C-alpha cells in the first residue's frame, strides 16, 4: 500500500510552492524596481524613449507582482516575464558588452522558481541558447566560452538544488504526516485527503469510496490486557488493513482505534469487497503478543462519494453506516444507502 506517495503534495504541505510564491513576489517587485532604476538612468542620459519604455516595463512587473501576490502566476505570464528580461539583458549586452553579462546569472537563477518542472527544462534551454548566441556575437571567443561554461555550472548547481529540495520535502512530509504507532497517515490530514479524493473523482469523473473501520470493544481489550498490548493490536491491525489496500488507496488513522481507508476510482461494490477483506484479516487471525493471544474484531461503515457531496457529508455517511454496524452487534460492514 502506498500511503504517502499516493497523497497530494499540496496546500499546507507544499513548502516548495510556498517558497516559490515568496520568491516570485520578490522577483516581480525586485525586477520592477531595478528596471525603474534603469529607466531613470536613461532619462538622465536624455534617452527619453528608452526611459519611457523601461518605465512601462517596470510598472508591468509591479502590476504582475501585485496581481499575483497570493497565488502563483500562470506559466505563460512567467514566460512573457522571462522573455522580457532576456531581451533587456541581450540589448544591454549589445550596448554595454561584458557589463551586461552580470545580469544573465540572476535571470538564469530566476527560471528555477518560475516554472513547473514540466516546462522548466525547455525554458532554461531556450534562455541559455539565447544568452549563448548573444555572448558569442558580442564578446571575444576567449571570454564567450568561459561565460557559457560558467552559466552551465550555475544551471547544474540549480538543478541539483531543486532535486534536493524535492527529496527533502518528500521526507519532511512523510515524517510529519505519519502516525508513529501505526505507520498510517495522521488524523490531522484526514480532511485534506478526503478533499483531494473528491477533487480527483470529480476531475476524472470516476467513483470513489471510503470506509471507516473501528476496532470493536477496544476499551475492554485495553482494560483486560493492558494499554501496551492494545498498542500492539492497533499496530498489527493497521498492518493487516494496509496489506489489503492497493497502491492507490490511502489509509489514515482517524482516531484512537479507528481507521479511514479511501479507495479512489472505486465503486461501492468493489470497495465493499476490499473492506470486507480488511475486516476478515482482523477477525480471522488472533493477535499475539508474547504469550498472550487474543481475537479482536472490527466494524466498518462504507460510503460511495455522491456528486456534489461535501467532504464532511461523505465522511458523515460512512460514520452513520459504522454506527449502524455497531448498533447491530458489531463485527460487520454496513454500506451507506
Ligand atoms: N492501546 C491503545 N488504546 C487506544 C489508543 N487510542 C485510543 N485507545 C483506546 O481505544 C478505545 C476506543 O474506545 P471506543 O471506540 O470509544 O469504544 P470501544 O470500547 O472500542 O467500543 P465500540 O467502539 O463501541 O465497539 C478507548 O478505550 C481508548 O482509550 C492507543 O493509541 N492505544
UniProtKB/TrEMBL annotation:
SMART domains: GGDEF. SUPFAM superfamilies: Nucleotide cyclase. InterPro entries: Diguanylate_Cyclase, GGDEF_dom, Nucleotide_cyclase, Rev_trsase/Diguanyl_cyclase. Keywords: Membrane, Transmembrane, Transmembrane helix. Its cofactor is Mg(2+). The keyword Coiled coil does not apply. Residues 206-337 form the GGDEF domain. The keyword Acetylation does not apply. Pfam families: GGDEF. It is an enzyme of class 2 (transferase). It catalyses: 2 GTP = 3',3'-c-di-GMP + 2 diphosphate. Its EC number is 2.7.7.65. GO terms for molecular function: diguanylate cyclase activity. It comes from the Bacteria. The chain crosses the membrane at residues 26-44, 50-68, 75-93, 99-115, 120-139, 145-164. PANTHER family: DIGUANYLATE CYCLASE DGCM-RELATED, REGULATORY COMPONENTS OF SENSORY TRANSDUCTION SYSTEM. This is diguanylate cyclase. The lineage of its organism: Bacteria, Pseudomonadati, Pseudomonadota, Gammaproteobacteria, Alteromonadales.
Amino acid at each position: 500500500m502506498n500511503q504517502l506517495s499516493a497523497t497530494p503534495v499540496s496546500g499546507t504541505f507544499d513548502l516548495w510552492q510556498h517558497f516559490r510564491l515568496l520568491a516570485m513576489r520578490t522577483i516581480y517587485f525586485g525586477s520592477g524596481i531595478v528596471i525603474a532604476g534603469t529607466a531613470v538612468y536613461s532619462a538622465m542620459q536624455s534617452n527619453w524613449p528608452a526611459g519611457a519604455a523601461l518605465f512601462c516595463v517596470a510598472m508591468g512587473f509591479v502590476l504582475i507582482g501585485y496581481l499575483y501576490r497570493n497565488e502563483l502566476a500562470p506559466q505563460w505570464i512567467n514566460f512573457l516575464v522571462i522573455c522580457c528580461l532576456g531581451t533587456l539583458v541581450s540589448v544591454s549586452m549589445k550596448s554595454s558588452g561584458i557589463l551586461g553579462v552580470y545580469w544573465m546569472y540572476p535571470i538564469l537563477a530566476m527560471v528555477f522558481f518560475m516554472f513547473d518542472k514540466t516546462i522548466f527544462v525547455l525554458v532554461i534551454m531556450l534562455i541559455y541558447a539565447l544568452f549563448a548566441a548573444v555572448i558569442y556575437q558580442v564578446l571575444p571567443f576567449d571570454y564567450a566560452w568561459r561565460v557559457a561554461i560558467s552559466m552551465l555550472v550555475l544551471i547544474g548547481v540549480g538543478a541539483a538544488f531543486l532535486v534536493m529540495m524535492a527529496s527533502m520535502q518528500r521526507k519532511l512530509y512523510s515524517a510529519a504526516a505519519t502516525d508513529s504507532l501505526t505507520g498510517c497517515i495522521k488524523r490531522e490530514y484526514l480532511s485534506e485527503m478526503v478533499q483531494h479524493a473528491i477533487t480527483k473523482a470529480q476531475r476524472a469523473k470516476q467513483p470513489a469510496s471510503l470506509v471507516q473501520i473501528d476496532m470493536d470493544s477496544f476499551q475492554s481489550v485495553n482494560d483486560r490486557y493492558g494499554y501496551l498490548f492494545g498498542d500492539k493490536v492497533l499496530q498489527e491491525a493497521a498492518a493487516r488493513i494496509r496489506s489489503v489496500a492497493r497502491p492507490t488507496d490511502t489509509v489514515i488513522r482517524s482516531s484512537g482505534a479507528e481507521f479511514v481507508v479511501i479507495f479512489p476510482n472505486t465503486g461501492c461494490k468493489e470497495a465493499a469487497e476490499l473492506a470486507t477483506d480488511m475486516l476478515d484479516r482482523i477477525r480471522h487471525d488472533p493477535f499475539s503478543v508474547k504469550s498472550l493471544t487474543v481475537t479482536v474484531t472490527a466494524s466498518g461503515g462504507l460510503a460511495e462519494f455522491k456528486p456534489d457531496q461535501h467532504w464532511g457529508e461523505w465522511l458523515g455517511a460512512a460514520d452513520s453506516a459504522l454506527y449502524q454496524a455497531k448498533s447491530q452487534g458489531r463485527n460487520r460492514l454496513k454500506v451507506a444507502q
